[in-house]
TrEMBL record:
Superkingdom assignment: Bacteria
GO biological process: DNA integration; DNA recombination
Organism classification: Bacteria, Bacillati, Bacillota, Clostridia, Eubacteriales
Residue stretches making up the Tyr recombinase domain: 49-235
Keyword terms of this UniProt record: DNA recombination
GO MF assignments: DNA binding
Name the record gives this protein: Tyr recombinase domain-containing protein
PROSITE patterns: TYR_RECOMBINASE
InterPro entries attached to this UniProt entry: DNA_brk_join_enz, Integrase-like_cat_sf, Integrase_catalytic, Tyrosine_recombinase_XerCD
Species annotation: Clostridium thermosuccinogenes
Chain ranges passing through the membrane: none
């Protein structure tokens, strides 16, 4: 009976079963034949969804909505600004400590991503000023203290980050529905930053390092999903075709015929 599970859920459960069968095969070799039947099951390919991202105008308008004169508003503004500026993952934002942000020229933030790999990301002066204003409003001095906390001074959870972004996303969509065709999720700001860097001619290798991807193959998804870049490259390729066609001279024709006789 079909349970209506998604392809990703199916593949995750299959991976868990395969890991268990691999363990059983090592501990009880007599069960290897049964385990091999499970290990041979192939993962199911899921259709690739287009990458959702915001335009530059949409990001700019989103940043205008939080009330920077209130404690909660300046926190939310600092969080959204940093998520876009650094292209960080949600967990990287949650794990961020005050000491990870350096306010000097250039302003930087150190993010710790998957595999405990750290990377240093430059941030603009405007974003740094917003984050500095937020930290000043909270009077946080401990360098090991989480940057973004809730009203109980506890680190924001993943659902808390999603709630904040969704709240302002709904407000932005109500005011400018043409800019926000989809529901906002935390990863959309990461996608948006990658797309905007790509549209401004930044090399994929640098974008890979910026996002903390282990392979440029992962980063290439942004190049494949951007119709504007495809149009640009197609036009560049088309410009190589000229209307004038130069005919072979008599000597070139004779040389070509001679070569064909010798090699065919």
């Amino acid at each position: 009976m079909s349970r209506g599970c998604s392809i990703n859920s199916r593949n995750q459960r299959l991976a868990a079963l395969k890991a268990f069968c691999g363990y059983v095969a090592r501990k009880s070799p007599e069960k290897s034949a049964l385990c091999q039947g499970v290990l041979k099951i192939r993962v199911k390919k899921a259709p690739q969804k287009p990458v959702e991202y915001l335009s530059v105008d949409a990001v700019e308008y989103l940043l205008k909505i939080p009330d920077r004169h209130s404690t909660q508003g300046i926190r939310d503004l600092a969080m959204i600004a940093l998520m876009y500026e650094s292209g960080c993952r949600v967990q990287e934002l949650i794990d961020l400590r005050v000491g990870d942000i350096v306010f000097r020229s250039p302003n930087t933030v150190t993010l710790t991503g998957k595999g405990n790999k750290a990377r240093v990301i430059p941030i603009s002066t405007n974003a740094a000023d917003i984050i500095k204003a937020y930290l000043n409003s909270t009077s946080i001095c401990d360098m090991a203290h989480p940057v973004f906390v809730n009203i109980y001074d506890k680190p924001l959870s993943r659902s808390g980050v999603s709630y904040v972004l969704d709240k302002y996303g709904q407000m932005a969509r109500n005011a400018r529905p043409e800019l926000y065709p989809c529901k906002l999720h935390p990863h959309i700001l990461r996608h948006s930053k990658a797309m905007h860097l790509l549209e401004n001619g930044v090399n994929l290798i640098y974008i890979r390092d910026f996002l903390g991807h282990s392979s440029v193959t992962t980063t290439e998804i942004y190049a494949r999903c951007n119709p504007e870049l495809k149009r640009k490259y197609i036009e560049q390729a088309g410009s190589l075709i000229t209307e004038s066609i130069e005919e072979y001279s008599e000597s070139e024709k004779e040389a070509l015929i001679a070569w064909l006789r010798e090699n065919i």
